[in-house]
Amino acid sequence: MTEEQLNRALDLMRRLPPQQIEKNLSDLIDLVPELCEDLLSSVDQPLKIARDKREGKDYLLCDYNRDGDSYRSPWSNTYEPPLEDGTLPTDRLRRLEVEANAAFDQYRQMYFEGGVSSVYLWDLDHGFAGVILIKRAGDGARNIKGCWDSIHVIEVQEKSTGRSAHYKLTSTVMLWLQTSRPGSGTMNLGGSLTRQVMEQDGTVSEPTSHIVNMGRLVEDMENKIRHTLNEIYFGKTKDIVNGLRSIQPLADQKQKQAFSEDLANALQKRQGKSDP
Amino acid sequence: MAPDDQISDQEKVRIASDFIRHAPPGEFNEVFTDVRVLLNNDTLLKEGVAGAFALYNKDQLTPVKLPNSSIPSLVTEHNDIGGGRFFDPRSKQSFKYDHLRKEASDLQAWESDTAVESWRDALESQFTEYTANHYKHGVCAVFGQSRNDSVSLVACIEDHQFQPKNYWNGRWRSQWCATLTGGTGELQGTLRVQVHYYEDGNVQLVCSKNVKHSLTCSNEVETAKEMVRLIEESESEYQLAINENYQTMSDTTFKALRRQLPITRSKVDWEKIISYKIGKEINKAQ
């Protein structure tokens, strides 16, 4: 029964307005408490920002850097609120995590020119996994509020030779746009494009090769999703609106169409007559 | 909350009803089935949540086919006469409405309010022509009521496109209320658009706008023409404004969130980023 309920819950989250994700998720967990853990790990929510006071930098919160009610900062590698035995990556993995945060910080600056990024890694049996998070809020120019949230989950299977690895990436990007203006009232265009899977092999000559391989995969994935977001948000949904109502009177259009059909027929007849 | 802490039945009903009422256009059945399985209590569903079905249908201005008429009517709060029955002023009938099956039955004759019928009828004529002229599959209805010395008219339009096979649905709703007192009138409109796209995701457009106009009333036909003129102007202006917003969102807002490529116009040189870091580390070690 619980598996069917989880499927129904996920279906519901795909239909309810994403503008109320947090409220919907909270209500859903209240209604079916047994699904709590599964829902928290499979439903993406807009990323929240926290401040690492020690390092003076912002970081992002998600299920992967959470332990109980505390969250681990990727800058100081400590939990806030402090935890006695909070889960920490191994030393080897922590070194890689530091490098990854620095590298994706630069990636973020080059593409987003602002915002916050965080990378969290954890060990697997034959490799490791990680999440790369990016949050970019707009400056409200032209009276439009916008926000972008990236959630990239990557799985790295290291081959026994240690010279290559297999990378599997699953990504979700959330895009939120809203405006309130006299001419158009309130307009809220938001949601996410989910889980697309990209797999690739890569050579590993030193530990930091992982960052090069992961970086390229994430970059390609994000560029693809950005393209799709552009098409869906500003192409598809707009076309649907304009299909519901026509600014031009439909009678005029029918007339125009009838006229151009008549014209085409007349031209054809003319050509028929002048042919030898 | 511990897993065995249960919320009250009242809270469950509130949550289930909220979910139902927020079903995107064209997806009521799917949301209903989801909620039914999650609530797992058909008695509670029938007793506590059934009211939400009616509220949803009325809020959506749901079109309804009448067995003996070629022109559909709408299910709204304005033609709700209680006991699960609604009236259709165009065909002068009332009907029983099944909110789950979305079907009309048990048609009976219904008398309109004679004090306002000439005004209502005149507006219905003009409004029906207007709807046909701008909404390919639009359905409209005009309701009239006399209130003391005023004539109260409500005109609604609904148009939708449901394409679940292509993972999208959309609906437009217009609701215009006119109060005519003596030689003057006030026209107030609420325009709503909702679009849901859900292939590999969940993207929704939710828009609404309120409009107000004042008008002078002469006779029934002239006043109806004036109202429809204002309505056409407002709705087209609204549609243009939405399109303008789309342009700005795509040209300005979206671009400012994430570039297509870095300012160098080429993808990131990851080897360079790493070597820079290694360089730093080597410097640190010295």
Automatic annotation (TrEMBL), chain A:
GO terms for cellular component: cytoplasm; F-actin capping protein complex. InterPro entries: CapZ_alpha/beta (IPR037282), CapZ_alpha/beta_2 (IPR042276), CAPZB (IPR001698), CAPZB_N (IPR043175), F-actin_capping_bsu_CS (IPR019771). Gene3D superfamilies: 1.20.58.570, F-actin capping protein, beta subunit. One of its GO terms (molecular function) is actin filament binding. PROSITE patterns: F_ACTIN_CAPPING_BETA. The keyword RNA-binding does not apply. It comes from the Eukaryota. Keywords: Actin capping, Actin-binding, Cytoplasm, Cytoskeleton. The keyword Cytoplasm applies. One of its GO terms (biological process) is regulation of lamellipodium assembly. F-actin-capping proteins bind in a Ca(2+)-independent manner to the fast growing ends of actin filaments (barbed end) thereby blocking the exchange of subunits at these ends. Unlike other capping proteins (such as gelsolin and severin), these proteins do not sever actin filaments. Heterodimer of an alpha and a beta subunit. Belongs to the F-actin-capping protein beta subunit family. This is F-actin-capping protein subunit beta. The lineage of its organism: Eukaryota, Metazoa, Ecdysozoa, Arthropoda, Crustacea.
Automatic annotation (TrEMBL), chain B:
GO terms for biological process: actin cytoskeleton organization; barbed-end actin filament capping. F-actin-capping proteins bind in a Ca(2+)-independent manner to the fast growing ends of actin filaments (barbed end) thereby blocking the exchange of subunits at these ends. Unlike other capping proteins (such as gelsolin and severin), these proteins do not sever actin filaments. Belongs to the F-actin-capping protein alpha subunit family. Keywords: Actin capping, Actin-binding. Gene3D superfamilies: F-actin capping protein, alpha subunit, F-actin capping protein, beta subunit. Component of the F-actin capping complex, composed of a heterodimer of an alpha and a beta subunit. It comes from the Eukaryota. GO terms for molecular function: actin filament binding. InterPro entries: CapZ_alpha (IPR002189), CapZ_alpha/beta (IPR037282), CapZ_alpha/beta_2 (IPR042276), CapZ_alpha_1 (IPR042489), F-actin_cap_asu_CS (IPR017865). This is F-actin-capping protein subunit alpha. One of its GO terms (cellular component) is F-actin capping protein complex.
